[in-house]
Specification:
5 domains, 47% helix, five-stranded antiparallel sheet, 21% strand, Rossmann fold, five-stranded parallel sheet, Beta-Lactamase, 21 helices, alpha/beta
Length: 685
């Protein structure tokens, strides 16, 4: 195996030649300079030497001169293989020193191997340009010529080297300037990123997938959950997960790994124990070869709460519209029953007990309808100044006499409360319904607290409560220590027909009636409840400016009979018309019927001379009550008109008042209520 000595000061050049030659069956010896090459060659001569020119200690030209002057080595082929600042003069000088070949890097591997095989195989070399040989002179003169040529080569190469160094120095200076500019931009970009990272209102967290702990996070991340930066750094998110399905976490992690990204909502427990709902966007990001979870989260607890309140308001509005329509039809069905029971009691005295059952059932149904109407639109009763302390005292007596003895009643009322403008019966119903619900929530006993106080609600407080407005209020608060309300149904408790009681214990209209009455009085409700800790229902009612102790005196019923006056009944329900006419005739009035507003105008024109009063329904086909009265006033501007309806809205009530109506009867009405209105019209005559 032929041995080849490779001389080069650069390791990468040595490795390349070593790989090429050793891979083609040659033994390779390496040397880093001329001195090392001579030492190895004299110890064990090679079959061929390949040398670079510029090397430390001893360069290639000097090595070639020494090589060709050594008796043992001069016949061994010498090949220059260089690419450093070479030209024809370098080639001529190298061949003049006795070198067999002068090759320029990078030579094609096959061509290089062919030359090497040719030289070591002693194949006669091809004809080449005759080398420039030094003239045969005396040794001193020959040495002088060599030194002269060698010095010229070295000076030229040094000049070339200086030129290259200057170019390299200028390029290095430009590179340093560009590097400094790049570093400045990187520092500026890092500063901007850090500012955006820390001041982002959304939490940003980089999580280690192996431990589930944060590697880096901004201030919003730990503040949203109530932790300090040190506590948050030690936190594992699995420990604060408040969802009831741990498998959801595993599925989300699997989705992030599979798809690289996942968006989800999840409840987390704060340091104070509060549950906050977080919108999370998680994705895998590679940082210096290590995959991590990059998470951006936003606290959407308040947004979800607002959305629930909005949905509840929309649901209540829709159900209220439906309830109003149902109540109108029920009123028309119940009206004839309530007006007819008195006639039945007179005509069938022996069956008065059965008639009383009919009346009780009809009144109970009428109360349910009235609750529906109250829920639907906040049906209004008579508005007077009311001192709520009296209502609380009345209810206190009812509770002490009827509620179980294991329920302790506590009453706290401010001594001087402003009055509220409202209907005493409806407000009494609000308190009673809330107290009954509190009683049912304490089956094993507890404490029921009634409170009444004045409160000023500012804009900040009002913005946090649905339907609230700033102002002065009288607050009615009912507090119990019962079972509490589960959070998942808290936003449904005011829905009509929604109840957690059995079918024989509740209709589901109690709280819907309560909120309808409170809203009808210009107020609003607030509820706090925790399972196992009880509930607090608070009603805010607008306060009047005058404080007094008004007491309502019940109206005494006075029997009254007509003197044959003619009264026109306008109603689209035949049963209501027929029973109303029968009642009027029994009370010694003359009754005329009309099926709608258009028919009412015809009957009014026909009986205008004898007609003394008109009782008209509000909602009728073809021509409703309001349109009927507008036209009627052009014909009979002074005749008394009574409007009957299940619900009379504020705008319609104001227009009826402008048109000169004298009274309003809530459907369904009884004979006594009708008689009281007629007494107001004809009693003074």
């Amino acid at each position: 195996m032929e041995k080849i000595l490779v001389v080069d000061d650069k390791e990468e050049n040595q490795y390349l030649l070593h790989a090429l030659l050793a891979g083609n069956g040659f033994a390779v010896e390496l040397a880093a300079n001329g001195v090392e090459a001579l030492a190895k060659a004299r110890q064990q001569p090679p079959d061929l030497i390949i040398a670079d020119i510029l090397m430390p200690v001893m360069d290639g030209f000097t090595l070639c001169r020494e090589w060709k002057q050594d008796g043992r080595l001069k016949l061994i082929p010498f090949v220059f293989y260089t690419a450093t600042y070479t030209d024809d003069r370098d080639r001529d000088f190298a061949l003049s020193l006795g070198a067999e070949r002068f090759l320029i890097k990078p030579e094609e591997p096959d061509a290089l191997l062919a030359i090497i095989r040719e030289l070591v195989g002693k194949v006669p070399p091809p004809a080449v340009a005759a080398p420039v040989r030094l003239p045969v002179e005396a040794p001193v003169e020959q040495e002088s010529v060599y030194l002269k040529q060698y010095n010229q080569v070295l000076v030229r190469k040094l000049e070339d080297k200086m030129t290259q160094l200057e170019k390299a120095n200028r390029a290095l200076e430009q590179d340093i300037a560009q590097r400094r500019q790049t570093e400045d931009k990187l520092r500026e970009a890092e500063s901007r990123y850090r500012t955006l990272f820390e001041q982002s209102p959304d939490g940003i967290v980089i999580i280690d997938p192996k431990t589930g702990r944060p590697l880096e996070f901004n201030a919003a991340a730990h503040r949203q959950l109530g932790y300090s930066r040190e506590e948050f750094a030690r936190l594992c998110f699995c420990e604060i997960d408040a969802s009831d399905k741990p498998e959801d976490i595993r599925s989300r992690i699997a989705r992030v790994i599979r798809e690289g990204r996942c968006d989800f909502e999840n409840p987390y427990r704060t340091r104070q124990g509060e549950i906050r709902h977080i919108q999370v966007t998680a994705q895998i990001v590679d940082i210096q070869g290590h995959p991590v979870y990059h998470c951006i989260w936003r606290d959407i607890t308040e947004r979800l709460k607002s959305e629930r309140l909005a949905r509840r308001s929309q649901r209540l509005e829709a159900i209220g519209t439906l309830a109003g329509g149902v109540a109108h039809d029920l009123n028309n069905a119940l009206g004839p029953i309530l007006m007819g029971v008195e006639m039945l009691r007179i005509d069938y005295p022996k069956e008065s007990e059965i008639v009383s059952w009919f009346e009780t059932s009809a009144r109970r149904a009428a109360d349910m309808v009235r609750q529906l109407l109250t829920f639907a639109k906040g049906a209004e009763g008579e508005r007077v100044a009311i001192q709520l302390t009296h209502l609380v005292k009345e209810l206190q007596g009812i509770i002490r006499g009827t509620f179980p003895k294991n329920i302790e009643l506590v009453v706290n009322c401010d001594r001087e409360l402003p009055t509220v403008l409202g209907d005493a019966t409806q407000l009494h119903q609000v308190l009673l319904n809330l107290c009954v619900n509190a009683r049912d929530a304490m089956p094993h006993g507890g404490t029921l607290t009634l409170e009444a106080e004045r409160m000023a609600v500012d804009a900040a407080c009002a913005s946090a409560i649905p339907d609230a407005k700033p102002g002065n209020y009288v607050v009615l608060r009912v507090r119990d220590t019962g079972t509490g309300i589960p959070p998942e149904i808290l936003d449904r408790i005011f829905d009509p027909f929604f109840t957690t009681k059995g079918p024989d214990k509740g209709t589901g209209l109690g709280l819907s009636t309560v909120i309808g009455i409170v809203k009808g009085h210009g107020g609003f409700m607030q509820v706090y409840s925790h399972p196992g800790q009880g509930s607090v229902f608070t009603a805010y009612l607008p306060a009047e400016g005058i404080e007094n102790n008004l007491a309502q005196t019940p109206k005494t019923e006075v029997k009254f009979r007509g003197q044959g006056e003619t009264i026109l009944i306008v109603d689209d329900e035949a049963s209501v018309r027929n029973v109303s006419c029968a009642v009027l005739r029994r009370l010694n009035f003359k009754a005329v019927m009309a099926k709608d507003g258009a028919d009412g105008l015809l009957q009014a024109a026909k009986h205008r001379i004898d007609l003394r009063a008109i009782i008209t329904d509000l909602h009728m086909p073809h021509m409703d009550g309001l349109s009927f009265i507008r036209v009627l006033r052009r014909m009979l501007p002074d005749i008394p008109v009574v409007v009957t309806s299940g619900l009379l809205e504020d705008a319609a009530a104001q227009e009826f008042k402008t048109l000169g109506t004298v009274a309003h009867l809530n459907k369904p009405f009884t004979e006594n209520q009708l008689l009281a209105v007629l007494q107001e019209i004809f009693g003074a005559k």
